Amino acid sequence: MENMGFTTSPSLFTPAATQNDGFVPITDPKTVPAFLNKLYNMVSDSSSSHLIRWSDSGNSFIVTKPDDFSREVLPRFFKHGNFTSFVRQLNMYGFHKVPHLQQGVLIAGDNTPDYWEFANDLFKKNKPELLCFLKRKTGKESSDEKESMDVKMLLNELSTIKQQQLNITEELKNLQRDNQLLWSESIAARERHMKQEEMINKIVRFLGQMFANDRSSSILPKSKKRHLMIQANDLLNTNKNIPQSSSDKVMELPEDKISNMDFKISQTKNDIQGINEDIDILETNLQDLTDSLGLNEDCKFDENFLDGGFLTLVRTSNLQSMGDVKMERDFSVETDATISLCDKKLLAGNPSEALESLFSLEKQTRLAGDAFSTGKLLVKIITVNQQLSDWKAVNDNLLLLSKKRGQLKQAITVMVQKAVSMVDQTPNMSIKLDLINTLRSVTEGKIFVEVERARLTKMLSGLKEQEGNLKEATEILHELQIETFGSMDKREKVDFILEQMRLGLAIKDFVETQVISKKISSKFLQEDENEDLKLRFYHLMIQIGLHDNSYLDICKYYQQIYQCKSIKEDSMKYTDTLRHVSMFVALAPFSNEQVDLLHHIYLDKNLNNLPIYKELLKCLSTTELLRWVVVQDAFAQEKQTLAAFSGVEGQKRWNDLKDRIVEHNIRVINSHYECISFKRFVQLLELNADEAEEAFSKMVVAKTIQAKMDRPLGIINFRLARKKEEVLNEWSTKLKLTT
Question: Which of 106, 34, 113 has the alpha carbon at shortest distance from 66?
Fold first, then answer.
């Protein structure tokens, strides 16, 4: 009899099985599925215990080497050797796989144990009577049990992951300790190196003084002794007792001792070279370790573990942060001396030696945390390159010095500021562009030189604009989020934003320009000292308004210009601005705000100097018909002088003015008539029938007026807007009359 692809084998209750194989009989074999009989036989068979056996606890069984098991054991009990089918049948009877720590998701290797362990609460060693309670899963029950099993497996896997994470945490702590030890060794070696260098420098200075004193004399006999003045503290770390006189501390050194000292000096130099090599190896190993861990020099582990056992790394600022590096020594005197010596070597025609001395001292000042001296040295280095007209060296040294390990922010800032001042001193455009691009690379991502980067970007944008590449110039300048620069002065910020707006308008990107304009506060522009920025801003806003035909906004912008002190002092500009204010308020579509602004402008006393504009505003503010022919004749000359009416767009605005006059006349007719013939309506508007009907329809659609036209009768009915209550009351009255 077959069951899910598995064939029945001899029963567990045969005498041979009981006597020879040592199997435990089951009381009621009819209630136990055939698959479980075979499985119990298989697990209890001692001849195949090397491939399938009970676990030590007897609550599960283990399959080792699945390939060998499928080939040797499965065919003895079933008609196949498919391990996957065997596992699927186990799942159908509620068996689940027991996960092991070595098989966790965080460990992947070839040495992972190749065995499977399965368990079921009713499948236990020496308890065959429980098998009758094992049932095969079907339908919903199977899916529910499967979900329960999946949850258990997930919980087991999570516990495994937690354990693995704890192991990783321990390993990372060990690496941290190693990291600290390496840093300690590196610092100690660096200190030894500095002491050795200091000793060598003092010995060299001593020998230089000695040979300088003897340069004027001829070669002395070997027996001749040289008298040298040496202070007691000039020779450090020497164990020899040097005899000195009590009066002037004079030491006598014969020639043989001098040669002996030369040998010791060379030997000390070799020792220092070995120390330098050891330091380089230590720094390389340390860098590899920090890179592999994703840490900086000052890296801390958060001891508070997150829920689930996951590790959190807390990175602290590195040696470049402001104020984090404590100055260990002041190199001001040595810096001034080295810079003075550098100038002398430059005059003597030895620029390479001059630069070498600057680089050597720069390393010492940087490691000692002397930001002021380091900044002076960096500035001197790039200044020397500039004096030599070696602009390539300027660019290379800017990149090199800014990326030095542990370079100080204050020093970088001073160097960048000096380099920015060199941009205008470059001999040609190619060198200028290279220097600007180099400085932008140096300042990228460094918030402490964000102002200098912004200025460089503005320079680069200006150069691109001069080349005629407006789009690229705009994109370069729009990259700056200048409003977030806390260290920049407000005036300079607004100047940058205005430049962004100007370039945006130059490429006709009106939407982006409108967005950028929101970054400028109107309160800031109202201050007297910012009047120049205010004028620039509102002139740019007028261009946006002209593009959008936002006549009311343009009127407000001209009003802001009209209120500026410099405009009031210039009568021509003052009059011209007032003309634009009056014309654009007349061009603006009818609204409550437009009416209020029109009355406010009409009351301006300075409008008496512009009688035709005053008369136009007066007619628009009263309920009297205004003839377009009269307006056209009155403003014929003004049309030629107003910039708003120039070009193709200017003609369109002239037509808009005519529409405003027609709309005003329709509103006047609406206020005087309840019913009017269409013929009379056309005569009053001084338009042809099509134009009058079009103007009338637009105002009805816009709900500026409420009216109906009876085309067959040629009558227009004007009626006032009624409240909802009035309409309902009228409807109720009529309903009662019908009943």
Answer: 113
